[in-house]
């Protein structure tokens, strides 16, 4: 069984730091567009809870104003009845386009 998730979406907000198992994580929301159009002719969007730690959290906080589109690779984890994507690697797509 493989637990791997790849998300391409818009970094929307920083929800602050949370403690899990004695470690500090940055909780963010990433907004992704659904693959289908709703009855009104629009693409709906989902907000996905993601957790970042150490270097990835520091880098996101430093680059967040410059970069809104991100690609995030991680795994699903459940903590206290809440499902998160635990980020392992983030790429900042806006920086790639503008460089």
Percent of sequence in beta strands: over 45%
Most strands sheet? 5 strands, mixed, barrel
Please report the number of helical segments: 2
Helix content: 10-25%
Shape: globular
Q: Quickly give the structural class.
A: alpha+beta
Outline the structure in words.
The chain has helices spanning 55-63, 93-98, and strands at 5-20, 23-37, 43-52, 69-79, 82-92. With 99 residues, the chain is α+β, with helices and mostly antiparallel strands. The chain has a five-stranded mixed beta barrel with strand order 1-2-3-5-4. Strand 1 (5-20) and strand 2 form a beta hairpin. The chain is globular and about 45 Å long.
Short description:
The protein has 99 residues and is α+β, with helices and mostly antiparallel strands. The protein has two helices and five strands.
Q: Secondary-structure blueprint of this entry?
A:
Blueprint lengths: L4 E16 L2 E15 L5 E10 L2 H9 L5 E11 L2 E11 H6 L1
Parallel strand pairs: 3-5
Antiparallel strand pairs: 1-2, 1-4, 2-3, 4-5
Features:
single chain, about 100 residues, alpha+beta, globular
């Amino acid at each position: 069984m493989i637990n791997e998730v790849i998300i391409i979406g818009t970094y929307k907000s920083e929800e602050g730091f949370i403690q899990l198992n004695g470690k500090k994580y940055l909780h963010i929301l990433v907004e992704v567009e659904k693959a289908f159009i709703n009855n009104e002719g629009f693409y709906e969007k989902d907000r996905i809870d993601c957790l970042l730690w150490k270097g990835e959290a520091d880098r996101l906080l430093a680059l967040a104003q410059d970069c809104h589109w991100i690609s995030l690779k991680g795994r699903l984890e459940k903590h206290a009845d809440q499902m998160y994507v635990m980020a392992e690697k983030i790429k900042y797509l806006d920086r790639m386009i503008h460089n």
